[in-house]
């Protein structure tokens, strides 16, 4: 991570609130992060924590809705939130592209895959249909679609799920965007295809020096793909930093909960899965203080009533290195070592001591 002013992407104090009949839904509540070219930020958190809303706001997808948006989103020195709708449309699909969980939501069933990919190119480039077709075929080949010349003229339903995901990646990358937002891009795929798609994204990232925001429920994907990790809870960052730091020295009990419920992180298949008790909070009326407090089994270790009354700030921990967390615990590392690691995987305790 780097200083805000110099980063390729800087999201600063982003708020996205939705007024509804039941009250104000605070889907993103003061989110800040940075991302450099060629790097990947993994955003992780339970359903409803604000991962998609915060990321799609970068693309301006909440324009024209009743969403109340404030803050700054700087991309290569330009504040995206201050652009006109026309200027934003020029960036969307060209400089910034999005890959969704469900390719059928991005691919129209009535048009051939190739025509849709070529059209994504023609919207931003003044080229002939023939040149766009050639470029589309080149992209299909790049993402590993066999016989791309023939496959170009297939309809989405003639592609398998994995091929549709590849086609959507081809469509997203055809204009060589500098920022790609991938929202659960592999959740619907089986494990083998998932690994292939992640490999493909990594290879394309290396080739084009793309910055990637990878939204996922899966800490395994974060461990494999990301340079930095951002853990979201109730519309806010609760832990953020270099991925190795966050995954091997997590400082916030919610991150501990996520790690405990994903045994494969660290490659320990014998580890026990410990689900986080309770449910994600309502964003209409989130709990006071630390919003995780009703579910946190460590809050009794914090003196007084702080967890219930006071929102912890996102602060750098004792290890430094830009590793931030939001928790009142005075010595989280000691609790993690003594109580959490043995719960997850007793072998890791020995490894760490060794
Ligand atoms: N247009 C809207 N109006 C009102 N509330 C909304 C709107 N869009 C999203 N929300 C709410 O904002 C919150 C955050 O939603 P978001 O889609 O960002 O969650 P998420 O972290 O991506 O979850 P998931 O993992 O399920 O995709 C949710 O409570 C959701 O119901
Ligand atoms: S601030 Fe309190 S409730 Fe929140 S995670 Fe830390 S210990 Fe748990
Ligand atoms: Mg989502």
From TrEMBL:
Residues 9-259 form the ABC transporter domain. GO terms for molecular function: ATP binding. Pfam families: ABC_tran, oligo_HPY. It is found in: Cell membrane. It comes from the Bacteria. Keywords: ATP-binding, Cell membrane, Membrane, Nucleotide-binding, Transport. Its main location: membrane. Gene3D superfamilies: P-loop containing nucleotide triphosphate hydrolases. It is a peripheral membrane protein. Belongs to the ABC transporter superfamily. This is ABC transporter ATP-binding protein.
């Amino acid at each position: 991570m780097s200083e805000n002013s110099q980063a390729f992407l800087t999201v600063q104090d982003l708020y996205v609130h939705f007024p509804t009949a039941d009250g104000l839904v605070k889907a993103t509540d003061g989110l800040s992060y940075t991302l450099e070219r060629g790097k990947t930020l993994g955003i992780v958190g339970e359903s409803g924590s604000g991962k998609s809303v915060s990321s799609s706001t970068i693309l301006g997808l909440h324009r024209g809705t009743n969403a109340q948006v404030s803050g700054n989103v700087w991309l290569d020195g330009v504040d995206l939130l201050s652009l006109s709708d026309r200027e934003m449309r020029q960036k969307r699909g060209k400089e910034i592209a999005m890959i969704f969980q469900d390719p059928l939501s991005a691919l129209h069933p009535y048009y051939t895959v190739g025509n849709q990919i070529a059209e994504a190119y023609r919207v931003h480039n003044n080229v002939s249909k023939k040149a766009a077709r050639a470029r589309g075929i080149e992209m299909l080949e790049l993402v590993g679609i066999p016989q791309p010349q023939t496959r170009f003229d297939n309809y989405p339903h003639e592609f398998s799920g994995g091929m549709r995901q590849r086609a959507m990646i081809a469509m997203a990358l055809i204009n060589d965007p500098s920022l790609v937002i991938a929202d659960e891009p592999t959740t619907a795929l089986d494990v083998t295809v998932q690994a292939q798609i992640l490999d493909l994204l990594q290879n394309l990232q290396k080739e084009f020096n793309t910055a990637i925001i990878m939204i996922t429920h899966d800490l395994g994907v974060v461990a494999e793909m990301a340079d930095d990790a951002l853990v979201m809870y109730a519309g806010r960052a609760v832990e953020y930093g270099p991925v190795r730091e966050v995954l091997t020295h997590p400082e916030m009990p919610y991150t501990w909960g996520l790690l405990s419920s994903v045994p494969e992180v660290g490659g320990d298949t014998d580890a026990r899965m410990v689900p986080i008790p309770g449910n994600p909070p309502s964003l209409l009326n989130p709990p006071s203080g630390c919003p995780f407090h009703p579910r946190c089994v460590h809050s009794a270790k914090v003196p007084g009533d702080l967890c219930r009354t006071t929102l912890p700030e996102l602060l750098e921990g004792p290890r430094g290195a830009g590793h931030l967390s939001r928790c009142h615990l005075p010595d989280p590392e000691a609790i993690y070592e003594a109580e959490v690691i043995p719960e997850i995987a007793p072998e890791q305790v020995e490894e760490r001591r060794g």
